């Protein structure tokens, strides 16, 4: 099926991405990862355009994209906060951190702040269990946190200090 | 400054503890003296991060708990050549206890060498095992050695590695795949991450030997995307390996060729299951399929495939270099060698440990780990993550071996060991794992998709004080069906956390159901948070942190929490500096 | 290809290598249930209903649709363990299956009439087809369509939009239309004679319904009736202004026309003994009703001027009605009390009903009460008689005021007399209508067991009494109840009698599994949001003046246009796939329980956008057959597996509606769907244009 609603610019980007990553069927996940790297989320039309260029059904790619928790279909905030919900963090009060962040930023779990500055997610385990509870902001991990510490850190991001 | 080298441990957890800041700071200060800092990874003593090691005249000193002030002292030492004995964590009593019982085979280089330098690995006898294999052994001889060593799959299932290799070696097909499962998804486990970050070449070498032994042509390391540092270091290591002709065509001048690349996972726990992992590698939804056919006959792109986990491959170079006997001398019942554990939770000394088979849980928790971090009595350890179970303190004399752990109802798993004290609610823990599994179910099979959902609903009901005693029967009934009738391990083992907690902590379930009490004070619906008037100084801090405005009382007044408004989030307890808020 | 030998539940099977256990089992004669496996598609193994156990294996259960046989393999495909696993599996699937197999109106109907079906036929102008459809369950739609208290309408989902469909009147419309068109009731042809003889005692709605269904099976049926006419309480307990002699004749005579013999004026125990019946007939059905009046248990009950409601109504039917005078007190709150009151109004009396509770607790149909009030009946709530005294030709009723106390066993609040609130009413007569009892004198010789309430003991499923070969139905088994229940139970009893006569095990009418969306008030508002509000069509009535002076039928019936307009309002709650749905068939077979694991259900938007295909995602069981059929058979890939875990669904990608995809409505997905997750839109079936109209 042709991507009837895709603009030329989108198709062009799709071609470029496929050229860069590859068009073999096993490249579906890397392709989606590349799209998300560029846009912070998966825009419907670009996913469809990539399917078109690859000549695979868009429904397959969409099915793959919705299976993996890494992929999202709405734009993300500038900073991505991941609260670790691993076992060690759970028993060390990860819920308190989530509560504090939600309160500090007025955002819900899985949501993005209105100013598009922060998205908040919880993740299964960041593998930093000995520093539980931990939070990862963008690519930086913060360990041995308390709710007041995490509030302070989040405020720093708010103030553009990172 | 002559003969002095400075190493900073830059594993993910070290970085999280501030090691990068220490590195940057010391680098800045020592640059002027033309000294380059060196990088190493996690040495396993995560409790003492950030860690800095200084080598002077061939003698290495490992300093822990390094903050900026202590870093200044260390910089001074480097400059003067006079070293203090402060925070020498490997030599302290604590450190000795932590290290003495450990045997490091897989972790031997972790935290010692620079993982981004292939030369350092080669200097540590790296790729020697591969060279021996290519020069001295026929492929089937390697399979025999690995069989003889008794090495079992360290991913959890405990299948004999040599036997598995023999399946691939014997499989029909020109193009065979070898996969390293680094999709470490168990919450509370970080063995694979640490190994890949700390010694990627060892895993790669293990894969190369396996490829040589089985005739595999292509290798894939499937690593979860949450481990960016591991992925980065694997990339560096593969490139360096290719450059040195350890990877690629005609390896070391032989006619053995093997290509290797990293595949980033995209966030699906179920992809730790072999068939789901292969589906994911093929670019599909990670849904497990029925076995047979087994991967050895029909795996990636229907070609023969062997899958082992990171730690399994990490054991291989040692076995080849030192012989099967050097490995299986660490033996207990039917388990051989060592096992790496991520020791975490309410533990005094948490970190990455490697212990010989046969050590007891108690030895790990009390001797290596030093007991609970809180000083409260230890209650249980959780082993095996969402597929495992909770082992109560009274069974702590259980030795570490596959059979003994299975007898408790838990599983060895990949090595997550989370310690719990009396502030951990076991019903909440069961609910936590079920919520995890439920969220990670691929959604294919009825029993897993809906069954775990219903189990979670029942557990939630119990933690909210709305359970009835029949719910326990229903949980056990459902658990039986789910484990007996699920396609993959995720479903089959999902009930374990529930079954073990019901088995060992039934009275806690009953307290929730009959008395509407959570003995550990965790389940929000069953607790009340209140101010202890005698301790309250009226500082107003709690009232300020309360997100719902449930706390009243002005300056110098004893505060009161309105139980109707209070959401029991616990932020006030954490904020209070006077121990004036309690859970009842 | 090489052959292998396997054992299926001990039966040796030789089969081609590479075959599945499912295929081998078929050869061995075992039909293994499966939902996700469809012919022509690769096995998917998602439903896990087809599980079996490999003997000597790990002890787990494996899906037979995908597990291949190996030589020497021994498999157990039927056992208690496997049955239990399948039952639990179905319990789980059903706990997340949101929909009604059968519309709630039909579920509520004690006769299980296919209401949705007959409304659809009315919309299509097929009234005589509709009449036929109703008679599959109940042979007297004309009578029921006039007097039924309509439990169906209480359950009607349309109540959540504005008000229920006028179901009851539609039955009447259908029956009247048929008779208008053909001059008489159209009857199905009975099966050829079985040479079995059944005796039925009582020609009321229960007895005659049982006669109808037994005759249809080809049995010879004789009904013994004490009165001079058939109809039972419909004739002798319901006034003509509600149900005319004409309607009764139309429907009850029709049953005689089928070859059912009715011996009138024949009293069992007086004219003929039950022993005699037992010897002369192959089976006996007791349907004697509950024709005795309950006592008020007050002093003076035996005085002249004190009547019982059913006797009074019965005598009206026999044209010899007693003189009740001009000021009548009726006691009671049920339909009989209201019927008595409205009859008395028509006889020119001033009527006061004494009822010991309030209107809210009144068991009479609400609209009947409204009509009574409208016609001038006075109802004195919270009052009860305590004594009746003679006062010349009149009576003095001593009564007392009541108040409501704690709820009693029936759930209604118990009336408690208020001390010192006694009062007197002067009346020409007092008619008590506080309940009925079964008069068992005539059949006591059969030796059938009686309950402590004096009703006849019967198995609730088979309606066989504790004496084999003797069955019972109607009020004599349930106690005084509504006619539509007597009809339904009579049909079920007839089913059992037929089994008995054929020498089969008497199990009663099969009960199919029924999925339900839940109680009317529990269903989410979302479900009803899309419907436009449209008021119920009103039943036209004769003029008030005419009403209170004659016994003419008050309600005049729907016109064709009005009836179709009303039929259009039906929400069609029942599932179109109810007859072929595999989930339902297996749920019935394995005795699944939808409420066993009650919990969250997936709540997705149904997709009705496409002209040919509709998707009711909440009925989907995630077998994925549609996705695979569209991809593998059609090559279109319209549908995707979306999401993960409990929320996984099979829908068009990117949140699109089906109409916005390239779907051409080929229906490959519909063919493989084991439930009703994907169906054709009405009239869009493959080759629908070729189907002849019925």
Unreliable runs of chain B: none
Q: Overall 3D geometry of chain A?
A: elongated
**Termini gap of chain A:** 44 Å
Major beta sheet summary of chain B: 5 strands, mixed
| Total count of helical runs of at least 4 residues of chain B | 24
* Major β-sheet strand ordering of chain A: 2-1-3-4
Write down the secondary-structure element order of chain A. Answer: HHHHEHHEEEH
Query: Helices and strands of chain B: which structural class?
Result: alpha/beta
Structural class given helices, strands, pairing of chain A? alpha+beta
Low-pLDDT runs of 5+ residues of chain A are none
Please tally the β strands of chain B and state the result: 19
End-to-end CA span of chain B: 59 Å
Q: How does the overall form of chain B come out from the CA principal axes?
A: globular
The biggest sheet of chain A amounts to: 4 strands, mixed
State the main characteristics.
heterotrimer; A: 162 residues; C: 694 residues; alpha/beta; five-stranded mixed β-sheet; 23 helices; 25 strands; globular
Q: Can you walk me through this structure?
A:
The complex is a heterotrimer of chains A (162), B (584) and C (694). Helix content of chain A is 47%, strand content 11%. Chain A is α+β, with helices and mostly antiparallel strands. The longest helix of chain A has 14 residues. The relative contact order of chain A is 0.12. The mean pLDDT of chain A is 90. Chain B has 584 residues and is an alpha/beta fold. Helices cover 41% and strands 15% of the residues of chain B. In chain B, the strands form six sheets. In chain B, strands 12-11-15-13-14 form a five-stranded mixed beta sheet. Chain B has a four-stranded mixed beta sheet with strand order 2-1-3-4, with helices on one face. A four-stranded parallel beta sheet of chain B has the order 7-6-5-8, sandwiched between helices. In chain B, a hairpin with a 5-residue loop joins strand 11 and strand 12. In chain C, the strands form seven sheets. Chain C has a five-stranded mixed beta sheet with strand order 2-1-5-3-4, sandwiched between helices. In chain C, strands 8-7-6-9-21 form a five-stranded parallel beta sheet, sandwiched between helices. In chain C, helix 2 packs across helix 21 and helix 6 runs antiparallel to helix 8. The longest helix of chain C is centred in the last third of the chain and has 19 residues. Chains in contact: A-B, A-C, B-C.
């Amino acid at each position: 099926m042709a991507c009837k609603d895709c603009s030329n610019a989108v198709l062009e980007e799709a071609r470029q991405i496929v050229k860069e990553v590859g068009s073999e069927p096993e490249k579906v996940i890397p392709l989606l990862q590349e799209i998300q790297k560029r846009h912070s989320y998966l825009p419907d039309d670009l996913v469809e355009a990539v399917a078109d260029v690859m000549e695979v059904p868009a429904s397959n790619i969409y099915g793959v994209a919705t299976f993996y928790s890494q992929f999202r279909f709405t734009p993300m905030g500038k900073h991505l906060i991941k609260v670790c919900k691993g076992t060690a963090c759970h028993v060390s009060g990860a819920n308190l951190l989530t509560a504090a962040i939600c309160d500090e930023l007025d955002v819900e779990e899985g949501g993005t702040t209105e100013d598009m500055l922060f998205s908040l997610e919880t993740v299964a385990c960041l593998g930093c269990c000995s520093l539980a509870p931990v939070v990862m902001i963008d690519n930086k991990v913060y360990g041995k946190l308390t709710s007041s510490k995490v509030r302070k850190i989040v405020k720093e991001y708010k103030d553009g200090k990172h | 400054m002559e003969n002095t080298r400075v190493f900073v441990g830059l594993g993910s957890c070290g970085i999280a503890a501030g090691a990068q800041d220490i590195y940057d700071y010391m680098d800045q200060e020592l640059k002027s003296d033309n000294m380059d800092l060196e990088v190493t990874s996690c040495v396993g003593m995560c409790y003492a991060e950030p860690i800095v090691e200084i080598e002077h005249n061939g003698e290495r000193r490992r300093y822990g708990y390094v903050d900026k002030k202590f870093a200044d002292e260390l910089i001074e030492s480097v400059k003067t050549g006079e070293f203090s004995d402060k925070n020498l964590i490997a030599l302290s009593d604590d450190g000795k206890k932590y290290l003495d019982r450990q045997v490091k085979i897989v972790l031997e280089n972790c935290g010692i060498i620079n993982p981004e330098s292939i030369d350092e690995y080669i200097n540590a006898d790296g790729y020697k095992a591969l060279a021996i294999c290519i020069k001295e052994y026929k492929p089937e001889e390697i399979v025999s050695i690995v069989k003889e060593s008794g090495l079992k799959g360290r991913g959890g299932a405990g299948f004999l590695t040599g036997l598995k290799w023999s399946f691939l070696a014997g499989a029909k097909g020109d193009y065979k795949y070898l996969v390293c499962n680094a999709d470490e998804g168990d919450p509370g486990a970080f063995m694979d991450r640490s190994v890949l970050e700390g010694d990627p070449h060892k895993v790669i070498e293990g894969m190369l030997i396996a490829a040589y032994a089985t005739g595999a042509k292509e290798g894939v390391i499937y690593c979860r995307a949450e481990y960016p540092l591991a992925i980065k270091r694997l990339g560096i290591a593969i490139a360096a390996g290719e450059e040195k002709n350890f990877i690629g065509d005609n390896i070391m001048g032989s006619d053995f060729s093997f290509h290797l690349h990293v595949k980033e996972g995209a966030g699906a726990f179920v992809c730790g299951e072999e068939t789901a992992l292969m589906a994911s590698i093929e670019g599909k939804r990670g849904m497990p399929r029925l076995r047979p056919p087994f991967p050895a006959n029909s795996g990636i792109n229907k070609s023969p495939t062997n899958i082992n986990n990171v730690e399994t491959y990490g054991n291989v170079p040692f076995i080849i270099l030192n012989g099967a006997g050097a490995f299986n001398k660490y033996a207990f019942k039917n388990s051989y060698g060592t096992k790496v554990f991520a020791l975490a939770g309410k533990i005094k000394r948490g970190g990455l440990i490697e212990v010989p088979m046969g050590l007891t849980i108690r030895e790990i928790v009390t001797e290596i780990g030093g007991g609970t971090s809180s000083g409260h009595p230890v209650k249980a350890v959780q082993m095996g993550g969402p597929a495992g179970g909770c082992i109560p303190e009274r069974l702590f004399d259980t030795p570490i071996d596959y059979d003994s752990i299975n007898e408790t109802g838990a599983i060895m798993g990949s090595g997550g060991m989370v310690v719990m004290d009396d502030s951990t609610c076991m019903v909440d823990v069961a609910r936590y794992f079920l919520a995890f599994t439920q969220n990670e179910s691929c959604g294919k099979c009825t029993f897993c998709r809906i069954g775990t959902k219903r189990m979670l609903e029942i557990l939630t009901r119990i933690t909210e004080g709305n359970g009835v005693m029949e719910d326990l029967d229903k949980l056990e009934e459902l658990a039986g069906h789910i484990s007996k009738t699920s396609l993959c391990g995720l479903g089959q083992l999902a009930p374990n956390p529930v079954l073990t907690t019901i088995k060992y902590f039934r009275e806690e379930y009953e307290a929730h159901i009959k008395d509407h009490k959570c003995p550990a004070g965790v389940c929000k619906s069953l607790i009340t948070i209140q101010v202890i008037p005698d301790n309250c100084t009226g500082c107003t801090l709690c009232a300020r942190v309360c997100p719902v405005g449930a706390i009243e009382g002005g300056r110098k007044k004893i505060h009161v929490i309105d139980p109707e408004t209070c959401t029991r989030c616990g932020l006030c307890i954490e904020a209070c500096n006077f121990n004036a808020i309690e859970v009842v | 290809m090489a052959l292998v030998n396997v054992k299926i539940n001990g039966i040796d099977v030789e089969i081609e290598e590479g075959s599945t256990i499912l295929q081998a089992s078929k050869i061995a004669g075992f039909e293994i249930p499966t939902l996700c496996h469809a012919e022509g598609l690769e096995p998917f193994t998602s439903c896990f209903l087809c599980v079996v156990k490999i003997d000597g294996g790990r002890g787990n259960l494996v899906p037979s649709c995908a597990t291949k046989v190996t030589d020497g393999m021994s498999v157990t495909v039927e056992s208690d363990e496997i049955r239990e696993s399948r039952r639990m599996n179905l319990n789980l699937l059903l706990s997340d299956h949101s929909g009604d197999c059968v519309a709630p109106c039909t579920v509520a109907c004690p006769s299980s009439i296919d209401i949705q079906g007959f409304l659809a036929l009315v919309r299509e102008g097929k009234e005589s087809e509709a009449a036929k459809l109703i008679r599959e369950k109940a042979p007297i739609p004309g009578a029921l369509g006039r007097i039924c208290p309509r439990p169906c309408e209480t359950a009607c989902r349309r109540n959540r939009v504005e008000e229920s469909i006028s179901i009851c009147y539609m039955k009447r419309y259908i029956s009247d239309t048929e008779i208008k068109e053909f001059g008489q009731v159209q009857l199905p042809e009975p099966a050829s004679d079985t040479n079995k003889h059944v005796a039925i005692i009582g020609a009321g709605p229960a007895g005659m319904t049982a006669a109808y269904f037994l005759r249809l099976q080809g049995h010879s049926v004789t009904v013994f009736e004490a009165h001079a006419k058939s109809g039972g309480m419909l004739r002798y307990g319901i006034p003509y202004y509600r149900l005319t002699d004409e309607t009764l004749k139309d429907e009850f005579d029709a049953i005689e026309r089928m070859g059912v013999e009715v011996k009138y004026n024949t009293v069992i125990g007086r004219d003929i003994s039950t022993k005699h019946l037992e010897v002369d007939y192959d089976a006996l059905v007791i349907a004697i009703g509950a024709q005795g009046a309950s006592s008020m248990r007050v002093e003076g009950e035996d005085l002249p001027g004190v009547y019982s409601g059913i006797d009074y109504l019965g005598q009206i039917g026999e044209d010899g009605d007693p003189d009740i005078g001009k000021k009548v007190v009726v006691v009671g709150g049920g339909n009989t009390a209201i019927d008595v009151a409205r009859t008395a109004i028509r006889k020119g009396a001033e009527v006061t009903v004494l009822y010991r509770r309030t209107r809210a607790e009144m068991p009479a149909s609400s609209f009947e009460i409204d009509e009574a009030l409208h016609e001038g009946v006075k109802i004195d709530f919270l009052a009860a008689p305590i004594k009746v005294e003679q006062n010349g030709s009149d009576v003095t009723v001593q009564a007392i005021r009541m108040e409501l106390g704690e709820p009693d066993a029936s759930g209604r609040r118990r009336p408690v007399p208020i001390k010192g609130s006694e009062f007197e009413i002067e009346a020409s007569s007092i008619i008590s209508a506080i309940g009925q009892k079964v008069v068992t004198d005539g059949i006591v010789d059969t030796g059938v067991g009686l309950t402590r309430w004096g009703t006849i003991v019967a198995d609730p499923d088979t309606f066989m009494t504790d004496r084999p070969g003797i069955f019972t139905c109607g009020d004599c088994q349930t106690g005084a109840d509504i006619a539509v229940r007597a009809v339904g139970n009579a049909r079920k009893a007839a089913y059992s009698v037929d089994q008995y006569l054929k020498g089969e095990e008497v199990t009663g009418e099969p009960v199919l599994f029924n999925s339900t969306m839940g109680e009317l008030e529990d269903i989410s508002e979302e479900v009803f949001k899309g419907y436009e509000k449209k008021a119920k069509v009103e039943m036209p009535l004769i003029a008030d003046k005419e009403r209170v002076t004659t016994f003419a039928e008050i309600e005049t019936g729907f016109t064709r246009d009005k009836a179709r307009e009303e039929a259009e309002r039906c929400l069609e709650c029942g599932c179109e796939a109810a007859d072929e749905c595999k989930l339902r068939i297996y749920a019935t077979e394995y005795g699944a329980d939808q409420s066993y694991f009650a919990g969250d259900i997936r709540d997705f938007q149904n997709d009705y956008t496409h002209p040919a295909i509709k998707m009711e995602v909440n009925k989907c069981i995630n077998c994925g057959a549609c996705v695979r059929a569209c991809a593998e058979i059609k090559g279109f890939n319209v549908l995707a597996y979306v999401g993960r875990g409990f929320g996984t669904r099979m829908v068009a990608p990117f949140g699109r509606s089906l109409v916005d995809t390239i779907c051409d409505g080929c229906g490959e997905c519909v063919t493989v769907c084991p439930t009703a997750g994907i169906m054709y839109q009405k009239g869009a079936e493959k080759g629908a244009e070729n189907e002849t109209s019925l």
